[in-house]
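Task: encode each sequence below as structure tokens.

Item 1
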Amino acid sequence: MEISQVKEELLRLRKEIRRHNKKYYELDAPEISDYEYDKLMTRLKELEAAYPEFITPTSPTQLVGGSARREAGKVVAHDVPMLSLQDVFSREEVEDFIKDAIAKLDSPEFVVEEKIDGLSLALRYEGGQFLQAITRGDGHQGEEVTENARVIDDVVQRLVDAPKYLEIRGEVYMTRQNFAATNERQERLGLKTFANPRNCAAGTLRQLDSRIVKERRLSMFVFNLQRVEGVEIQSHVEAYDFMTRNGIKIIHAYKVCKTFEEVWRAIEEIGQRRASLDYDIDGAVVKVNSFAQREQLGATSKFPRWAVAYKYPPDERETILRRIELSVGRTGRITPTAVFDAVSLNGTKVERATLHNQDFIDELDVRIGDTIKVYKSGEIIPRVSGVVVSKRPKDSVPFKMPEACPVCKHKLEREESATDYRCVNVNCPAQLENHLLNFAGRKAMDIHGLGETSIPKLIAEGFIKTVADVYKLRERRDELLAKKIFGLAKATDKVLAAIEESKKNSPAKLLTGLGIFGVGSAAARDLIQHFGGLSELSKATEEALQAVPDIGGITARHVREFFDDADNLKILDELKEAGLTMEAEKKIIESAIAGKSFVLTGKLDKFTRDEASKIIIERGGLVKGSVSKNTDYVIAGEKAGTKLSKAFELGITILNEEDFEKMLAE
């Protein structure tokens, strides 16, 4: 590769990555997937490794916050072991700890503070500059997550009153508000939601992409001084004062106590206010204040002897289940919610709790009218733990999900091996936002500017009720400007131009955007290749649909049901009238590839997989994701895996890149 070519590619890659960073962080309008972003960054790193003389300080590989990719699994030893705390569960156990400390120490003081439910993290500073972040791991060594810690707002990057060296320990957590926002986004994108804030925080901190960490907005409290050089600090409270002066966020509202009665009162006070906190705690920690006295008490191989963690007992109440309400999520998932007589849990009034799905209801055998037991999971989330069968009404009956969606009355679906019921009606009002996000997404109609920020506004203001309304927005330009849906005139015209441009997209992209259950971009491409367009596809029987390779019975049924729906046909007529491309361009193709089915596996040198796929499709071939008896050729590159093995088993012709190029030349 010529030097001029290297410089040119470096320039292009850096420019493209910076543009995607801006789209992701500042505009909240990402254009590419994480996988595609990773490919760009990997290529940039490869070039910079081969030509280190061309690395610049402003290269995305050298900057934090959006472009940084941490190294997975890098293990770092702790300077000071990050031990667990011994759990205690009763007033008597706390009293025994206090009495034992008083007997061994000279007038000890105790600090009582909240025990945050999160993930422990050690932060290292050198000369006042943030240097490194390490997870707890096994207590003796942990995983480095420095780049991720840099994008947590509570992690101070530079200390004001800088010691020579400082190591502190804290807890990374997620506020309830940010946890709810993250799960909402996961559901909107059709991804798995998190069980609780702690799991979400722990999983987020270990992400390889700091963009995800920044997006989910983690928080951190510091609760211990691990090691310091260049300044004398004698106690836990002194350490907190030093940290506060340096802008470090510490556990707030801690209490310094001298007697067991004072300690227990402080524990009770934390217990009384935990329901009002915007983060989860799983107990209260009692620590000896003096560092010298901590040294005197020492530690076991697992726990320090100078601290204990008191765990609050679960607050559980019995109440009467009055009804089970059903809600429809943005992806069509039906969630049952128990509505019961209000009870007080941890100081708050509770009258609703999720029942998850039909399997959960069946497992507990929850019935309307039952006396149920309710508690708070993670100190905040109400849960149903069981049923008092002895108090069950004689006329009670098992609860079963209805056949129809509670919002649009469309028939609910429960696929084999799935736990959830779903409404698969693409026009269900409860799913409109998610449906539009899919329609405007990169793999579908690829309408830049129509995304997570603008779509909710368009729905709320009544501009869009179906996907066909997207192509009526130009007629309402003045109203869009008055409502500032997209901002000023320039931004509005840019989005309207993108909508107009999307009319030229292939019918495969349109089919992807229609949101038919089971029809993603690959299936849409296969269906359009087979039937030539939406006109013939709309007439196809289930048997004809299943004749298309990789289209199974469930997908065929959903496709047929979509085209049998009068509302869907009306929307398609409106899209056709708006000028969208409904039929594929018919080409007479004479090549060795036409009509043949290909599967690509392994790393290719002269083509990317996308490039090779495009070439095959342009010449009338079919590209499949899996090997079957209907596959004609498998193109295998380096590190080809199970697809290659299956091709050998089935006796399918295997091509290398040279064979593929010869076929193209024919």
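Item 2
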Amino acid sequence: MAGKATFILGIHNHQPVGNFDHVIEDAYRRAYLPFIEVMKDYPGIPFSLHNSGILWDWFSAKHPEYIETVAAMVSEGRVELMSAGYYEPILTVIPERDRQGQLSMMSDFLRERFGRTPRGCWLTERIWDPNLPDTLARAGLEYVVVDDSHFKSAGFRSEEMKGSFFTEDNGSFIRVFPIDRKLRYLIPFHQPGEVIDYLRRVAAMDTPGGNVAVLADDGEKFGLWTGTYNLCYVENWLRRFCDLLMENSDWLEVRTFSPVVDSAPPLGIVYLPTASYSEMMEWALPLRAQRSYHEAKDILAASGRFEEPAEAVRGGLWRNFLVKYEESNWMHKRMLGVSSMVGEFGRSAGKAASANALSHLYQAQCNCAYWHGLFGGLYLPHLRSAVFHHLIEAENAVAGDRRGRGVECASRDIDGDGTEETAVSTPLIRAFFKKRGAVLRELDSLDPAFNVTDTLTRREEFYHGELLKLAERGSGRGGETVSIHDMASAKEEGLEKRLFYDRLPRASLVDHFLAGGTEIGALAGGLFEDMGDFAAGDWDLATRAGKGKVVLEFSRGGIVSQPGGPVKVAVVKRITMTDSSPSLDVGYTIVPSGGRLKARFAVESVFSMLAGNAPDRYFSFPGREVAERHLASTGEEDGVSSVSMVDEWLDLSVTLEFEPAALFWRFPVETVSNSDAGYERVYQGSAVVPVWDLDLDDGGPASFRIVIRLGGAKIGREERPRK
């Protein structure tokens, strides 16, 4: 009805699987708890609430009083609870059986704990695909909320979206509500009166079925985002806003989604393209396309003809992250493989065993570590590590007790790059190898469940250009509170000097032929010349299985540049894994032909223990003292035959043995990434590189051996210097 408006307030709270407990506690104290405490005082302002399953579990364990408060508000009709995938997966990129499993898990929890069956769904990262109506309707849901950018991609104008719409797939209908972008940027960053003025303009419209304006957004913006705690609870923005909502209740009604579904007819039917919010679609673009996107957006803004230039330029889709980041694609494809394994296991396993495997699989599907935008996401090692931890535990649950099962070897194209990867499993470890480069792509400890090679390639990002501009003019802003999308600052000085980029995706057992005299700084900074074509080349692979062991023999005939011209070089890399030792025994044979070979042979690997400067994680060199032992240290040691990386917190160590003794380089792999608090340096892992000098006549062979062994942290404690 003209002159009146309906305002729907929806709050979405979420923390990633694997996030630190103190981080979640801080979010609780600064955002989740104070928001609820304020809203308790306004019984006339109902709101819709979604907490991810990760948070429901955390509240149950740490702050059950929060759940009791929410339960009371639900019973009074003041809070409508929304569903979603329990562990906050992106529904469009997990199998349908897992979509239904995750949605059912959340619905079951809400029904059992709060006595309410959810009617609607928060859509993770608002990532929409045209097949979702069928998924959601099959899960018993009646509505979902998405961004208005989805509608604008389908040709709608802002004034045409003040209500809900029907959409369908395969005859399955569901109601869809567009989230008002204007409200997302007004709340809470502008004065409450400005929000009311905007809602008054909505009320002046004459929309069939009512003038409905929806804000469904992150609860963290009410206290956790930079500057918002002071804004919302010291300056009392939230109370002032609620007061104005009550004062204007003669024309402005605050409702939750379900009453609007029941009372207001849909504005029509709509078919939405694959989409997310505009910022997500921008972040998903590759670097070159991102630059074009911003250039086009700036041109449109300068024309003055577009109210929202960013929405007039189409970005990418979420799946582009699987192309943009090899690590994201690898995790995703590993997850799909484990999902298939768990699905098959569930058909014959007992209820408890199946539930355990599913729980780990579902936690591994939490979206946060699979992408990167404004927040760290993929760039945060502890989030990636949590994904791998749960994938490994799901595999452990399916495999059961592996003692006595020997060594298992299987090959298939895991990541869709067109070549097969080979997985080797022993009772203690699991390793994945790629024929391209003959590299070790992943090495897992099964107990503890931990991927010791999880790292991230150093890439150029669009915001690196913004960081360089920031360094030129000086960082920082004034004291005003601004939207998180408009912040720009650096968490430490000199970050622009740490922008290094890798030529190839990070992996282990990467073979380099370097010019004589090449120093550690060249390799660490990505400034070296690789004289050989082995690191990125395709290798042949022969697999031999024996009693209790598997031997992978990689071979390649390549070339190595020399001052007098290229020399043909044959390299054989034999990797032996047995059922009796958590180790990889790697033997090299190098033979030049057609000329003399003079070079440095360097084998680069990366191992990650998550913390580069923690006192309980360090390098241990038997029989020698080094100036710096922390994992983020840089150093060169001559004549090294053994070195260990030790993690006392995990009770895990990675020991490398070299034969003959090698010149040993170590340096941290660190990225510079964007976050909600500014640009930051993140330790991704430690590169460890044995180096041998080659001077071989035509046909003269050289042999080297590297043993990589996983074990407990006891070796490190025994060898630590006594005070």
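Check on item 2: Residues 32 and 219 are 7 Å apart (CA to CA). The longest strand covers residues 652-673.
End of task.
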